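[Q] Does anyone have a clean structure-token version of this?
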Amino acid sequence: MRVRQVSKSAEPVSVQLDFDDNRLLPLLYGAHDKHLAQIEQRLDVSLTSRGNQLIISGPAEGAELARRTMLRLYQRVKAGQPVDPGEVDAALRMAVDGDQGPAGDEPTIKTRKKRISARTPMQRRYIEAMQRNELVLGLGPAGTGKTYLAVCFAVEMLITGRVDRLILSRPAVEAGERLGFLPGDMREKVDPYLRPIYDALYDALPADQVMKKLETGEIEIAPLAFMRGRTLANAFVILDEAQNTTPIQMKMFLTRLGENSRMVVTGDLSQVDLPKGVKSGLRDAADTLDGIESVSFIHFTERDVVRHPLVARIVGAYERRSRADTPDGGK
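[A] Here you go.
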């Protein structure tokens, strides 16, 4: 791979990339060069392919970002990893946010069905935090991958034998009082509230393996109200939608952590459904645990939303209105 800047003028510039393996270029460029078109539209540059060369033309900043994006994607295809529009978007995000690390150095999650890598710099920090720490709290808006990445990482820990059980919990019903009014057994009672977790499970494991592990107890659905009194050893424990816990519930949950166990707590403090005047247990934990060793906080923002681009704009609009409606500007 060679990089040569053809024009040295401030704007526009022309940058030439020389790829050393032509066979990889169809995967890199996408069908009908759709990946190149995606980069052109995002960065307002022109990408022209000639044999093993790619000419990037346009404003200096956009050309540099396109260069970083193409180099990252090329390292990905050289490593045998797929490139799709989502991965192109991820490489663009990394480039725009100044992350210049090579694609091969990114932390990844390996499950039975796929290999998952970070799509934003904050997702990279999140995966690294889960690899290093016993307790990770992921805070931020919907669509940032908080729950999905936590479940996939937990599956990797389970199938590689680093934990014996995966325990999934969510404060679907306050203190558990309403569970008795729902039909079915315990899992059927809370299943409607755990669909995002199930979606991630089925994305990481074949369906028959998910069902088998649920039957054997390797994967357990544990409503928050029924966690009291347990000590969870050799387990990976996930508490989702934690903004809807009370401080007492959160303390109870966090103190279940046993030997050789890890916890990930996820939630969005902008979507607290607790009664007015009741402090969120997630906010209380964020205030209480800051600075404690082996506890990591990852704060996602609208820039980390990896769903439809409109979702990020919707989240941003609500956050701006919330700040405007708060007397101190949300501080």
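[Q] Thanks! Anything notable?
[A] Confidence is low (pLDDT under 50) at residues 3-10, 173-177.
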